[in-house]
Amino acid sequence: MQFGIFTVGDVTPDPTTGRTPTERERIKAMVAIALKAEEVGLDVFATGEHHNPPFVPSSPTTMLGYIAARTERLVLSTSTTLITTNDPVKIAEDFAMLQHLADGRVDLMMGRGNTGPVYPWFGKDIREGINLAVENYALLHRLWREDVVNWEGKFRTPLQGFTSTPRPLDGVAPFVWHGSIRSPEIAEQAAYYGDGFFHNNIFWPADHTKRMIELYRARYAHYGHGTPEQAIVGLGGQVFMRKNSQDAVREFRPYFDNAPVYGHGPSLEDFTAQTPLTVGSPQQVIEKTLAFRDYAGDYQRQLFLMDHAGLPLKTVLEQLDLLGEEVVPVLREEFAKDRPADVPDAPTHASLLALRKDAPTEEGARA
């Protein structure tokens, strides 16, 4: 099982000081957080993609390429690549290039995003969001697997004899997670291709998350990729920790109350009761995260959001120390207990390459 962090890259005033970091400071902080993630033994760093203030990560592959050069083990991912407004040809090229630079330590999460105005900024119609996601990914899937592509669709110009370059590293496409909070069509899409499904459940109660994951697992089996239990599932989460839980609540409350997404809404107590947000001691984080398995089953990737709402970099790095030293080692051990042998690990470039080498050739299959 993989454990890591994801960032949305918000530039938010610190409510305790009133100071807003510059864009440069925030970008550099995201890099520092990724480096710290590797240092404390996490597996994954994922960045969002946004094209509007107060967010800065408009070019994920630029940032991930820079981080790749400064890390050795960390899997570099996105916590959303906008499949609706990005050209699938450019996605194919950018992430194949990143694959080569990072020696395969790359995957990505497809999503539609949650900012409506981004569609017209890139010449798209938000009313076609689902259709864009379906058509664009169908093309991207082919671009990584076919050397020469002839294609015609509704939302971009046709392709005739087109070859995306560079080709994927070792002939293995980056693994794709399809991220969704509320759209069953995206769970269906992930199941159809046998890809991963990431339910970023940070704003949702457990019963909703359970229904979405069960739908994906059932459809994954329907399409013949394996049993429902073998489907590839990822979850989000939010945590803020201190050794003493009362200290954690007291310190985090002003950040929660003024956060750009859920600030001035539900109380901290209501939100922690109804969503995966955990504010407390490392032991409380362990207990709540382990409970995710009760409704999600055995899953492959757990990512935490830790650097949002104006939290200072120093505080985030302290959080990562606690996560890496006190929380994740226990989660690894506990999640491994009673895990069925046929439940797969999270896919990596090495595991996908091994599967490709073990697959029968076309001539062998005919024989």
From TrEMBL:
It comes from Streptomyces violaceorubidus. Signal peptide: none annotated. NCBIfam families: LLM_CE1758_fam (TIGR04036). Residues 355-367 have a biased composition (Basic and acidic residues). PANTHER family: BLR5498 PROTEIN, LUCIFERASE-LIKE MONOOXYGENASE. This is LLM class flavin-dependent oxidoreductase. Residues 338-367 are annotated as: Disordered. One of its GO terms (molecular function) is oxidoreductase activity. SUPFAM superfamilies: Bacterial luciferase-like (SSF51679). Keywords: Monooxygenase, Oxidoreductase.
